[in-house]
Amino acid sequence: MAHTKLTNLTVVKEFILLGLSDHPGQNPVLFFLFLAMYLITLGGNSSISTIIVADSQLHTPMYFFLFNLSVLDMCLTTVLLPKMLSNLLINKKTIPFYDCITQLYFFAFFATTEVFLLAVMAIDRYVAICRPLHYTTLMSTKVCTILTASSWIVSCLHSVLYSVLISNFTYCGPNQIQQFFCDVPPLLMLSCSDTSSYELLILTESSFILLVTLMSVVVSYMCIIYTILKMQTKEGRQRTFSTCSSHLIVVTLYYGTVLFNYIRPTSSYSLQKDKVMTVIYTAVTPMINPFIYCLRNTQVKEALRRVMSRYILQSTM
């Protein structure tokens, strides 16, 4: 362990990321599994982003938000998985202190932005289904830009707070992080400073963000369901619900795992359960999001056909 002596304390200069498994023999399997997941995530989300940009019929608020979600998913996995893959490949699990804090910052930034963006997408679906006559006014280009920019800016400030406070704690050993990346809960457990007040702050602030955004989602979908149930025909109800079912699946998966991981005291953390939940929202959800939106969305599939047809036509000319 790299360290320096300072006022009779051993100050940690690097951490050891223990990863997902204690058995080195499982590293090759985990490496190829997460490499495949990472490549699928990049391929799927970059494809959706390209289709949305290339097809003018998808230049609507819903697909503007979906474009941002795809970019976020690529950024989130890129912050975490390459380092994990490197550790699995060369079996060097150390990460310098300030690299760890940097990774924590970007992870908190992208993960929190996704929480806000999913809430904004729920509000967009509410306006589209419950206030269709006012949709173009309420969800204008200016409004969509402000909502998206606000999500990024507030998340940036939120992650700065986390990173600055975490970096100012004293770490005097041990330096083993029971996770495959630098996250707040395991770092709090390693600090030899009094973190009780910070734990209260992080629990309060995280709870506020998650619960406010979750309430926005819940209220939006309660109104959406009420509006759908009032529709006269079964066909109309199915068609309307299909426009927001993909988003509802993603929200349930993402919010469920994030709430489990962060809205509880540090003393109740279970290492194995936390690792499973973390993998779901940091690797699995970004990977399957493009498939959820594409397979359940006729407009995206039609746009894909149009873009591919244009590409094939240009290639043969």
Question: Would you give an account of this structure?
Answer:
- There is one protein chain.
- The protein has 317 residues and is mainly α.
- 75% of the residues lie in helices and 5% in strands.
- It contains ten helices and five strands.
- The strands form two sheets. The protein has a three-stranded mixed β-sheet.
- Helix 2 (61-90) packs antiparallel against helix 3, helix 3 runs parallel beside helix 7 and helix 8 runs antiparallel to helix 9 (271-295).
- It is globular, with a radius of gyration of 22 Å.
Distance between the termini: 62 Å
Class by SSE composition: mainly alpha
Tell me how many strands there are. Answer: 5
Question: Main β-sheet: number of strands, strand sense, barrel status?
Answer: 3 strands, mixed
Beta content comes to: 5-15%
Number of helices: 10
Radius of gyration: 22 Å
The percent of residues in helical segments reads over 70%
Mean pLDDT: 83
Tertiary shape: globular
- From N to C, what is the helix and strand string? EEEHHEHHHEHHHHH
Across the major sheet, the strand order is 4-3-5
Low-confidence stretches: 1-8
Notable features of this structure?
disordered N terminus, 317 residues, globular, 5% strand, mainly alpha, 5 strands
What topology emerges from the helices and strands here?
Layout: E1 3-6, E2 9-12, E3 14-17, H1 27-54, H2 61-90, E4 94-96, H3 97-130, H4 135-138, H5 141-167, E5 176-177, H6 184-190, H7 196-229, H8 234-262, H9 271-295, H10 298-316
